[in-house]
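I hope you will forgive my troubling you with a question about protein structure. I set the record out below, with my sincere thanks for your time.
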Amino acid sequence: MKDLTPRKEDLNPIEIASRDQIAALQLERMKWSLAHAYENVPFYKASFDKAGVHPDDLQSLADLAKFPFTVKQDLRDNYPFGMFAIPREQVKRIHASSGTTGQPTVVGYSENDLKNWGEVVGRSLRASGLCPGDILHNAYGYGLFTGGLGIHLGADSLGLTTVPVSGGMTQRQVRLIEDFKPKGITVTPSYALSILDEYAAQGLDPRDSSLEVGIFGAEPWTNAMRLEIEAAFDMHAVDIYGLSEVMGPGVANECVETKDGLHIWEDHFYPEIINPTTGEVVADDEQGELVFTSLTKEAFPIIRYRTRDLTRLLPGTARSMRRMEKITGRSDDMIILRGVNVFPTQIEEQLMTVKGLAPHFQIELSKPDRMDQLTVLCEAAQDCAGEDARKAAAGDLAHKIKATVGISVKVLIADPGGVERSQGKAVRIIDNRPKS
């Protein structure tokens, strides 16, 4: 793989500023953001008043812990435009969640918000190793989902040539990569595996493609998955993080030269880690739930938003800004099986170590009797054709999950292609247990 480290002179000076400079800027912007939310969003005025706090109470960054949390239900309760802090006529862009798990959450952007969004995504793409003039194959979905259009904003900001292919039509994805020869690809990790399958189906070697870096996000993925993709494509694989409620993609990104966690663009987004049960702020090196406060958003300020993502904060390395570890899972995606906490990434991590299995899987939850049952549905690799080989691979995976996670599972191995492919975010959990 090529060395894609950006030149120091190409970085935004704030990326390598001192921690004191960053903290001073954060405090100034946080004071503005709290006052802006309190004065212009009835929800925040009521929430702050109920908690007995006022924006003037913020005298240090630590004082943010005095302010109440915002959760997804608050956004749903104020659907569609109740969380906007500027007149609707001044909102230049609206995005929304799919609403598959309830009322959609709606977010808005002012003209300045879009400028800032483009800047932080452009910063993320540059940290990934892309330079002005490079071609980017953008396979994130376009539309109300923030992924495709958010990445496109950043690509324009950095000066890339963007191929807005969106998701789906995997045969065409491969054709365009081969014909247009992009340097980078932005895509969910699960859909990258589908693209790899299509390369094999067309008899093409992905290592011969033009791709030098893949920028993967929108779902948790493991370092084992990173190594698998890097080896298959002979390219760098870096992580990008974001969520629509905070901005979209580009809240944090790994630096290609280190790949040791995602640097948070702290001049725009202030992170905290809390104990998911008590809500208390924990030390930077402790794992917990990630909470964000926006520092510059005009149309849709967000104060202490509980993301449900589980990670921990670490000191900066390639940049001065703090890093967050790769997301290990979400507190609301956690499976409690017979008293044991299980995350899909733990299953994926073990699956990647079993010879003879492809990296596609789903988890099915059922209750055939009094006890919950977890079944891992995966598929055989092309070189694992015999029944004995498949039986051995299933036993190996079940044993490794039992030894590392602490639960007994059933493993079913389908033929190659037997696990439903993702066209965007992977559907990892199918819950067939009776509804109480």
